[in-house]
TrEMBL record:
This is EAL domain-containing protein. Gene3D superfamilies: EAL domain (3.20.20.450). Residues 1-184 form the EAL domain. It comes from Pseudoduganella guangdongensis. PROSITE patterns: EAL.
Amino acid sequence: MIGNALELGEFELWCHPHVAAHDGSIASVQAEVRWRRQDGRLAAPGAIARAFPTATMQELFVLHMVCDALAALRMWSAEGFELNIVLALPVPQARLEAPGTRGLVAGLLAQAGLAPARLVLRGSVDGACCEVADLLDWLRVRGAGCAQAAGEFIATPQPVHVLPAALRRWQASYAVMSAADAFS
């Protein structure tokens, strides 16, 4: 099941940009994996974690998603965005920290010419309370008392290939909001 999905390209990286509220800069990007089945529907988040028949298949999945993340980093660099990725994968943290996995990931980073700090692997995490669609939404969330909204907010997820355009929209939105604040 997972092997077929890997071959068919059914796994997609979706990115949550972390935006600094004080200046609109993109602090980092958290990427998560979504499984778009052949019928076009998204699988439930836990479906990926339950689908691994063997530890070898789990490691293959991790390496496949790491390669996708490295391709995204290179694409974003070509677009003028030097971002770091925290890649949340639906596998146990112990698998990600295993010496064999760490060695393979380090080799892939070196082969891609990227510093190790550009890609951090983590087991999947729950969505943050401060996920917002735009700066006005962030102001609403902050007004509602979200503890994390004071310094950084998390933009709604974007498919990896459209992230540069989304980041340009964030920067333009921030510039407009900053200009409006200057006249207030």
